[in-house]
Amino acid sequence: MAHSVYQESHEGTEPKGRALPHAPDTGRRGRVVSVLREDPDLARHLDPARAMTASRVAVANVVSLPKSTFCPHDRLPNRPGTLGMLLLDGLILRAVEVEGRPSLEVLGTGDVIRPFEAEPDPDATVPHVVQWWALRPAKLAVLDASFIRRMSDYPEVIGDLAGRLARGSATGSLRLSIVQQPRLSTRLEIMLWHLADRFGRVHSEGVLLPVPMCHGLLSWLVGASRPAVCRAVNELQRAGRVEPGPDGTWWLRSPPHEAALTPAVQDVAA
Length: 270
Fold this sequence. Notes:
Blueprint: H1 6-11, E1 28-34, H2 35-38, H3 48-57, E2 59-65, E3 69-70, H4 72-75, E4 84-98, E5 101-107, E6 112-113, E7 129-143, H5 145-150, H6 155-179, H7 184-199, E8 201-203, E9 206-209, H8 215-222, H9 226-238, E10 242-244, E11 250-252, H10 261-269
Antiparallel strand pairs: 1-2, 2-7, 3-7, 4-5, 4-6, 4-7, 8-9, 9-11, 10-11
Helix pairs in contact: 7-9, 8-9
């Protein structure tokens, strides 16, 4: 990768080297949980009686990942018919690098991922590199073919899981729009609030974004150099818009003003 921020994000040190370190295979499998008990929102379209019955059959194997980089082939099962992996707990980062310039996706509790679909195509015209790491210890439920068969009487649940897969594409489109903001401090503030919509915790003094984001990771998020991001952070701090929190987290003081998007969309349509 262009710069390894793995050590920085975990130890508070400067980046060391270009590639993320490869961690040994320590993912643990074998625990079984009820997906609906772990994520009750998936049963929101079921009446109480059906939800209770569904929770008894909605069992799935769990893979545990330590705080580390990982390779999906080493850590996650890849069986035919698997819908994906439901993130039950933790934070996972997915980085994609093209010509030395990385971008970043933050995945959290409730997201459904298909990590093997994201692997680079060796015949692609634009080569790229994909890397993964658990920013916090993570637990993923394996939604394999047997799980799908057991849930065939509950299409509402399958529909919600498919909707969460589609949410990833919609979120990616929103990130692309944010990255097109010309002013870096504005781009950075909007991106932090975008993350706060998913992960933020409201307090009397503001919103705490409990996602540890060093300046290197922020630079990947907003498509800018690390020094430029440092300057943008300082600008936002002087304006009282953001403050660094404990362990790399961030305090957000007030939401950015709404952009006048409608005229721009109308201009494009015209």
